Amino acid sequence: MMSAAKRRMALSRQEFRQLVSQAIASLPPLVMDCLTNVEVVVQDQPTHEELAVAGTDPTETLLGLYAGIPLTKRSSSYGMVLPDKITLYQRSIEEGCRTKQEIQEQIRTTLLHEIGHHFGLSEDELEKAGYK
To answer: Which residues form a coiled coil (predicted)?
Structure first.
């Protein structure tokens, strides 16, 4: 999450998705191996329901959201389930950035934050690790 700021930079959806693909491709193989059955999608902005699920304060902007069953909560009966989903919110990310490089860095940070939730990390743990 990030404090709301005036939008400085806007990319096409194709440009934004390219940056997301680059961020995914840059992940270490060990992380990639743990991302089976996880889909990464891009939306413009979160819905009211997604904001409620995330417990986002009205003064903050939701940059991404993880929805699924974290690895730490899966049992041997895990299977035949829909993919977990990491949603990155393009307009929300762009609002806090002035350059394409800042957008690229924020995409990577947000992606790593949401992957942290997939690994079972809490908001507090992610904040301590520098992924707030």
So the answer is: none
In the block, which residue shows the tokens 């079972």?
A: 120
| pLDDT > 90? residue 7 | no
Residue boundaries of the structural domains of the chain: 11-128
Q: How would CATH label the architecture of 11-128? A: 2-Layer Sandwich (3.30)
Question: Taking phi first (over 0 means left), then psi (-120 to 50 degrees means alpha), and beta for anything else, what does residue 130 get?
Answer: left
Q: Is the pTM of this model over 0.90?
A: no
Instruction: Give the total residue count for the chain.
Output: 132
Instruction: Calculate the alpha carbon distances from 115 to 27, 48, 121 in Å.
Output: 10, 22, 9
Rounded distance between C-alpha atoms, residue 23 and residue 16, angstroms: 11
